[in-house]
Amino acid sequence: MSRAVSVVLAAVAVAGAAGCAEMSEDYRQQMYLGETFYNNQKFYESIGNFTRAVEASQNNDEKYKALLGVANAATEHGLNIYTHAESLIRNRNRSAGAVKCAEADQWHDTANRSFAKLLEMRPKDTIANYYLGLFLYKRATSFSELPYPGTERGMAQRRKERDGAVEEFTKVLATERGDITSQKHVGECKSPQVHRYLALALFARSDWDRNDGENARRNLMVYLNLLKNSQGAVVDNPNAAEDPDGAKLEKERRMERLRKEIADTRSLLHEQYKGCQQLVVMWEGRKEQPPIPEEKRELWINAAKREVHALADLSREFKEATQAARKPLFEKPLEAQPTGNQ
Asked: Fewest Cβ atoms nearer than 10 Å: which of 8, 193, 215, 314?
């Protein structure tokens, strides 16, 4: 699971109409420290500052932003502790591992309560739905066995949270209409990054009866179109004439970020492609455990074969985007060649 920390929280992005009054210096300082610690992956310290910001808030807008910080920092801190707990258990220190696991459970309880409060404060605002979706997605796709016990109950809980992640991301995108795979949609879409996470959650769930593969690929097309548009915006930076040296550095930084995002997505598609190929082999050979319903075997095999071809096509489109992103941004002009008799 990627632990890359995408800037917290809409602590700045969640600008509401409320909060016109001057915020207190204490609140401002605690939010600044919370965001700084969060961005440096010091999540325990971040939780403390965001909690103090909640206490120092003077209106619901300030409280909402600070509580969102608590929820996200508690999410990441809990995930880190689960990883530590599993390491202890694997090294035969089960008692210490159990203590750490209980501690992680408490931090994720804090995150859950915070998300519930956020949804209560703004039931029509989808910001909390987005971050709750991330919380569930990160738990459900964790490489470690924790936070789920290695039992049928644990597997059921992981499936439930995968469903929950899909549900929350779908709520964020519920108002979108028309063909989301069209280039036109990117200019109208207010949440293109959410499409990427919905695709990831659908791939993770891979429910063949609910057509998750096709839905995931459609959402990834939104993300691909966003990346293409972003490449054009980097190249056509209108500020280049004002500060050519600064614009060059900024272009390179932005393009490098885009290259990484494209590479990460191509890697995901490749893993999904290999996984579907392996499923076809297992299902055709009746080697899967537990066995799939016999009445669905042929249907799922054909769906998986179609998915293999579709993933190959989508991967080629991302490959083309990769090649475009690799082109030098600043070509050295050709020197004038001497002409005539010298």
From this structure: 193
Give the pLDDT of residue 230. 77
pLDDT score, position 11: 43
Between these two residues, 16 and 291, which has the higher pLDDT value? 291
pLDDT score, position 4: 38
- List own/partner pairs for 92-98 with CB under 8 A and 24 or more apart: none
220's CB contacts (< 8 A; 6+ apart) are 195, 196, 199, 265, 269, 314
User: What's the distance, CA 85 to chain centroid?
Assistant: 24
pLDDT digits (tens, 9 = 90+) for 38-81: 999 999 999 999 999 999 999 999 999 999 999 999 999 999 99
Burial class (CB within 10 angstroms; exposed 0-12, middle 13-18, buried 19+) of 146: buried
Task: At 153, list the tokens.
Answer: 């109950």
- Spans of all domains in the chain: 176-328
Q: How far apart are CA 240 and CA 329, in angstroms?
A: 12
List, in order, residues 6 or more apart from 239 with CB less than 8 Å away.
247
Q: Quick check: bond before 244 cis, omega within 30?
A: no
CA distance linking residue 146 with residue 140, whole number of Å: 10
What average pLDDT score do residues 99-122 get? Answer: 97
CB 56 within 8 A of CB 24: yes
Q: CB atoms < 10 A from the CB of 93, how many?
A: 14
Note if the pTM is more than 0.90.
no
CA distances from 176 to 153, 173, 193, 253, 311 (A): 36, 6, 14, 31, 24
